[in-house]
Amino acid sequence: MPTRVSKQRQSVIGLLRTLNIDPAQIPRTRPFYRRIVELIERGVSGGALAPGVRLPPERDLALALDVSRATVVAAYRELESRGLARAYVGRGTFVSATSDGSAPFAWRGKISTAAIQMTDSTLRDLVRHAADPDIVSLAAGEPALDLFPTDAFRVALDDALTRHGTAAWGHAPTEGQHGFREVLARRFGGEAANTLVISGAQQGLDLLARCLIDRGDAVVVDRPGYLGSLQSFRSAGARIFGWDFVRADMDELEDLLLRYRPKLIYTNPTFQNPSGQTLPIRARRELIELAMRYRVPIVEDETYCQLSLSGAAPPSALHELDQDGTVVIRVNSFSKVLAPGLRLGWVGAARPIIEQLALMKQQIDPHTQNLIQLVVAQMIDTGLFDTHLSTLRVEHRRRRDSMARALQKYTPSGALRVGVPEGGLFFWCRLAAQASAREVQQRALAHGVAIVTGEPFYVDGGGTRELRICFTSRPSDVGVRAAKVIGASVAQAVRQSERAQPIARIV
Amino acid sequence: MPTRVSKQRQSVIGLLRTLNIDPAQIPRTRPFYRRIVELIERGVSGGALAPGVRLPPERDLALALDVSRATVVAAYRELESRGLARAYVGRGTFVSATSDGSAPFAWRGKISTAAIQMTDSTLRDLVRHAADPDIVSLAAGEPALDLFPTDAFRVALDDALTRHGTAAWGHAPTEGQHGFREVLARRFGGEAANTLVISGAQQGLDLLARCLIDRGDAVVVDRPGYLGSLQSFRSAGARIFGWDFVRADMDELEDLLLRYRPKLIYTNPTFQNPSGQTLPIRARRELIELAMRYRVPIVEDETYCQLSLSGAAPPSALHELDQDGTVVIRVNSFSKVLAPGLRLGWVGAARPIIEQLALMKQQIDPHTQNLIQLVVAQMIDTGLFDTHLSTLRVEHRRRRDSMARALQKYTPSGALRVGVPEGGLFFWCRLAAQASAREVQQRALAHGVAIVTGEPFYVDGGGTRELRICFTSRPSDVGVRAAKVIGASVAQAVRQSERAQPIARIV
Q: Could you tell me the CATH number of the domain that includes residue A363?
C-alpha cells in the first residue's frame, strides 16, 4: 500500500456505523449495488470515510448486508470506476480520494502506488529555475556555459553530418555507437564493449536502481550525497542509509555493510556533490577492499572528476583501483564538462551488468541520440574537448576565487562558513548561527538569486543549516552581485533568528 | 519472487537429506558458519540444490543444527555475498545460481527481481539490425531516411544556435521548452500546458506504465499490437489482455473491461503497427463511450497518424472525440515522420497526468535535449516539416506499390497474403501455407534481409505465420531486391513444410 495512506481498516460494523446504516432499513430496490455505492460515496464526500481507509472485504460486507457477494463486487467496481476507490491485488479496496464532482474523470484514483510516492520535485524545480531568465540560478550545477565553444561545435556538427550522412537519422544500437564507445574508452579508460551510452548520469542511476534494487533492499549512499541518486534509489523502493562521506570513517561503513547487507554503495568520491570533498587514496583502497570482502557493488559517480581546479590530478578513481574490473560501476556524463542540455553520459561496468542495463534501456529509451554521439566523438578526437576543459578550469578557478572573496566580504563575520573546494562546481556552506538555510534561500530568491538548502542531500534529516551554491555558472561580476544578495540574506536571517531567540526563551 | 524460479521450498529435514548431513557428525570447529556455507555451496555446485529453491528459515536450520541463529544468518549472508543465494525481504533466502568459481564477483545474484524479468531483447535486436550496414533491415520501422532534408536541418540548426544562444546548453524545464510546446499545440492540437516533451514514444510508454500500473494490474492492448508497449506494460508487472483490434468487436472489449477492470487501454488506432489497419469512426466513438462508462483511461498511440498514403485524412483521433479532454492520453513521436535517431516525442493528457509524468521524468531523464527541440520547432514553424511530410507520402506510396508488386511476383501463388495498408510503414503478411514465419525470417536473414515475425506482437501466442515488413526505409530498387529474397525464402519454407508434412503423418 502507499505509505501515505493510513493503515486504518474499516470493519464491517465500523463501516455501517460510520455511514449510519441499518442493514434492515436499506430499501431492497434494485439494483441494490447502486444503493451501496451511494452510501459509501456520501460517506466519502461527507468526510466520514477518509482517503486510505480500507473498505471491508467484499465477503464480510455481503454477509452483513445479506446480499450476494457479486452485488458488493459490483458496488466496489463502480466506486473504483468513479475514482473513489482503488483495488490492490491481494490487499483489498481502499478509499482513494474525496469525491470530486466537478471532474468528469477522477485521475487521482488512477495513479500507481509507486508513482504516488514520486512527489519530490526538487530536481524539476532546479532545472526550471536554471532555465528562468529572470533568476540568477546558482542552484543547479552548470559549468561556464557562456564559454561553450559554439562555433567549434557547429563545425564538429557539420563534419559529423557530412561524414556520417544518414547514420545520424536511423536507429542505432542500444549500447551506443561503436565509434563513440571506442572514443570514450580511449579518452576515459575502460573497454568499449563494457560501456553503455546513456542520456545523462540520471538515466544511468535510474537504470542501475531498477537493475540492482528490489523494494525493501538496503543501499548505502554518501551523507550528504547527490539528491538525484537519492530520488532514484527511493523510487526503486530502497531503504537508504547514509555514510558520513566527509569524515570517511571506514568502521562506520563496515558497520553499515554488516548490519544492512546493502545491494550497492553509491558514492561520488571526487570533488563530491555537494560537499566538494575528495576521498583520500587510503580510504579509496579500503572502500574497494570492503566492497570485495562483502561483495557489494560500488556505483562510482565520476561526474566531477575532470574538474580539478588546482591542476593536480585527484587520487586514482575507484574503478582504477578495482583491478579485476568487477566490483565498480562507473557513471559519468558530459553535463558538467560540456553542457547539461546535451543529455549525454555513459556507464562502465562488468559485461553482465552492461548487458542487463542495455536490455532495460531498450524499453525505456531504445538508444541515445545519434547526432550528439557523433559530435562529441568528433570533439574528443580533435582535441577540442580537452582544450575546452582547460579553459573551463582556468575560468572556474577565477569564478570560485572572486565569489569566495565576495561571500566573505558581504556576509557578517562568522555567520557563514564557506567550503571552498579544489574542484567541482559548488561551495558547500554552513550557517554558523541559528539561522535557517531555508530562510536564507527564500530571501535570496526574493531578490532573484536561486540557491539550494542542504536538506535534499540528506537521507536522514540534516542540512537545515547548509547551503549549496554553484560558483561556475555565471561570470565573475554576476557571481559577485549574487554573493552580495546571499550575504544580505544571511545577515537578515541571522538578525531574524536573534530576534526570535529571546521570545522563545520567554515563552 | 521471480516468476522464473521454482516455488519449491526446502524443509530443514529435506535440506539435511539433500546435502547428506547428519547434524551430530558435523565437526564443531569454528567458525561453524563456514562449514554450513561449504555444505550448501557443495550442494549447489553438485546440482543437488537447484536455483530458485528456498532455503529453510534461519531459525529452523539453527534449531536442527543446534547452533545459534546468528551462525545461520552469517552463513546465509556469506552465501549471498558469493552470489549463490539472494534474500528477499519477507520471503526468505533462495538459491540464486550455480557456483561460478571463475568469476571474482558473481553478478548473477545481484540483479533485481524486476530486472531479471527483462530478458526480451526484441527491440534491442531490431535497432541493432537497423544500424548494421551489411543488412537490408526491413525489421524496424523507419521512414525514407535517404530523403531526410539534411541541408535544411543544418540551416534550422544554425538558426537555432544563432537565435537562442546558450539556451541550448543549459538545463531546461522537465516538461519541455515553452516555445516548443506551443509549436506542438499549434501544429498537432491540444494545449501547450498539457504537453510533456519526451525522448521518443517509448519513453512515454515507460512513464505511463510506471504512472498508471501497479504490479498485477490488468491492461488491455491491441491484438496484434506494438511490441514496445507490451514490453513496457510487462515490466511494470501488468497482466496484459489482447483485444482483437482488426475485428474491432466492441462486445469483446466491453467484456474485457467488465471482467478484468483494466487500469488502461492501449491502442494505436490509425495505420496501426503492425496490422496497418485503422479503427473506423463508429468503433472510435464506441471506444470513447466505453472508456467513459468504465472510467478507464485510453493511451492513444498516434505515431503513424500523419502518414496517410492515400491523401485522405484518417477518421478523427480518439483525443479529438474525447470532448472533455479527460480520458485520452496521446503519445506521439517524430521518429516516423522525421527520424528515429532524433529521439523526440511528446505526451498530451489532462493536467494531473502531465504533472505526475513530469515528476517521474525528472528522475529518469531530467529533460529532453534542448537543441533538438529548438531545431524541430524551427522546422515546423518554417513549414519545412509539412513539406517533408508531403515528400514522404509520395515516396512512401511509390515504395509500397513497387514492393507489393515484387512480393506478388516473387512469392509462390497463394503462399503469402500481403496486407497493403493505406498508411504507416508496414506490410502485415500472413503465410497461407503451413510454413513458419520464423523459418522465412531466418532464410531471409541468411541472405541479408531482416524482417520480423508476428510473435512479439501478440501477448497470448499467435503470430507464428505472420510477418511484418517495413516498405518505407529503402529505395524502391533495394525494396524490390529484398522482396525477391523474401519471396524465395517463402518458397523454400513452403517446400520444407510440404516435405515435413508426410513424414509427420507416417510417424
A: 3.40.640.10
Domain boundary pick from A74, A97, A114 = A114
pTM attached to this predicted model: 0.82
How many residues belong to chain A? 507
Of B77, B162, B235, B362, which to mutate for an interface test with A (greatest number of A Cβ within 10 Å)? B362
- Residue B423 belongs to domain with CATH number: 3.90.1150.10
Looking at residue A470, the DSSP 8-state letter turns out to be: E
Rounded to a whole number, what is the distance in Å from the CA of B376 to chain A's nearest CA? 14
Which of chain A's residues have a Cβ under 8 Å away from the Cβ of B368? Answer: 343
Of the three residues B348, B381, B414, the one that is the final residue of a domain is B381
Which range (A47-61, B392-406, B410-424) has the least confidence? A47-61
Question: Does a structural domain hold residue B4?
Answer: no
Min distance A285 CA to chain B CA atoms (Å):
17
CA distance B208 to chain A (A): 10
Same domain, B263 and B178: yes
Nearest in space to A430 (alpha carbons), one of A457, A391, A448: A457
**Residue range B102-123: mean pLDDT, rounded:** 71
User: Residue A112 and residue B172: Cβ atoms within 8 Å?
Assistant: no
Contact A128 B83 (CB under 8 A): no
Report how far apart, in Å, the C-alpha atoms of A294 and of each of A183, A225, B74 are: 34, 22, 12
A69-81 vs A58-65: helix crossing angle, rounded to 10:
120
Residue A235, chain B, CB below 8 Å: the answer is yes
Q: Is A171's CB within 8 Å of B142's CB?
A: yes
Q: How many CB atoms lie within 10 A of CB B136?
A: 21
Spell out which residues of chain B touch residue A181, defining contact as CB-CB under 8 Å. Answer: none
Identify whether B271 is part of a domain: yes
* Residue numbers of the domain that contains A128: 122-144+387-506
Of A111 and B299, the structure prediction assigns the larger pLDDT to B299
CB A244 within 8 A of CB A253: no
- The number of residues in chain B equals 507
d(CA A215, CA A3): 13
* ipTM beyond cut 0.90: no
Measured between its terminal Cα atoms, the distance across chain A in Å is 42
Claim to verify: residue B477 and residue B344 sit in the same structural domain: no
A361 and A230 Cβ atoms separated by less than 8 Å: no
Q: Can you give the pLDDT at residue B102?
A: 41
